[in-house]
Each structure stands twice: as structure tokens, then as C-alpha cells.
Write a structure and sequence with these properties.
Layout (H helix, E strand, L loop, with lengths): L2 H23 L2 H17 L10 H23 L10 H4 L9 H15 L3 H11 L4 H8 L3 H18 L9
Length: 171
């Protein structure tokens, strides 16, 4: 198929792509962008199209994959898109406040988890947490420094598993 024929066939099929793009994006401007990206990819990858196959299905596949890739990229970046006319949300971050309720729940959970540790692990862990060096803890508890390091490691591991619900929060 020549470039001119390819362009002609894509022009005929592209009208049916817009409704699909609207269903995927739920926004007219995003649908136009998706359609444009799809057609651009189709033209740049024209050599990958096999004559005699379903051009419409090929374009729908390109569009779907482009949408999925863009969506995953947006989720990974975890971006916030401010759709207000005056960018109110973007400009209001300096004046936003937290009520610290979440923080107090987290602190209570952490305290409970630490208190539930066996004394063997909690004591060296808390000493290290308060700023004692490994050799100071070893001397004070009269145990080898390797044992101190191991007990602190085990305490951290247990706390990490008990407090896994907080792993994705940045506080």
C-alpha cells in the first residue's frame, strides 16, 4: 500500500476513532489528543501495518495501548490536574492545613506496636532510637554488639510488618 493510499484509508477510518477516544478519556480535549497521538503513531509505524489486515482494528489497538500507557504514566507520576479556571488548587497549597488526626492515629499505632515487642528486642531498639550507639547499648545491657545489632534488626522487621498499612504514606 502506498503512503497516499494509507493516508486515504486512515482518513476514512479515523472518524470512527473519535467516539472510542471519548469513551476512554471522558473529555473532548483529551480525546482529541489521544486521536492525534494514535494517528501520529500509525503514520510513523506505517511499515508495521500488514496489507490486507483490518486497518480499523489496528488503529483501535494503537489507541487503546496509547491510552493505557498515558494513564499508567499519569498514575506513576501521581500528578494532580487542576481543572479550575483560576488554578485555585495549585495556588492554595501554601494556605492548606492538616488537622493532624491521621498523625495521632499513626503515633498511637506505632506506640502500641513498640509496646507489643518482646522486651528482648524493645529495650535495645528504644535505646538506639533515643540515640545510644551500638557499643553503648552492648555495654549497658552486657551483651555482644552483634546481638544488639541483630535484636534491633528484628525489632525493625517486626515493626515494619505490624505497621505495613503506613508504608505508602509520606509523613
Amino acid at each position: 500500500m502506498t503512503a497516499l493510499e494509507f493516508t486515504y484509508h486512515i482518513g476514512k477510518v479515523s472518524k470512527s476513532l473519535r467516539p472510542f477516544a471519548l469513551r476512554l478519556t471522558k473529555d473532548a480535549e483529551d480525546a482529541n489528543d489521544l486521536l492525534q497521538d494514535t494517528l501520529l503513531k500509525a503514520f510513523t509505524n506505517r511499515d508495521k501495518y500488514t496489507d490486507g489486515t483490518n486497518l480499523k482494528a489496528w488503529l483501535y489497538t494503537i489507541m487503546k495501548n496509547t491510552f493505557i500507557t498515558n494513564y499508567q504514566r499519569m498514575i506513576r507520576k501521581n500528578t494532580f490536574i487542576d481543572t479550575t479556571d483560576n488554578l485555585h488548587y495549585i495556588n492554595s497549597t501554601e494556605s492548606s492545613t492538616d488537622n493532624l488526626a491521621y498523625s495521632s492515629f499513626a503515633q498511637e499505632d506505632i506506640a502500641r506496636a513498640v509496646n507489643n515487642l518482646d522486651d528482648t528486642y524493645r529495650t535495645p531498639f528504644m535505646m538506639h532510637f533515643r540515640g545510644f550507639k551500638y557499643h553503648e547499648i552492648a555495654a549497658k545491657l552486657d551483651i555482644p554488639i552483634g546481638t544488639v545489632k541483630n535484636r534491633i534488626h528484628i525489632a525493625r522487621k517486626e515493626l515494619k510488618s505490624k505497621l505495613h498499612v503506613y508504608a505508602h504514606f509520606n509523613s
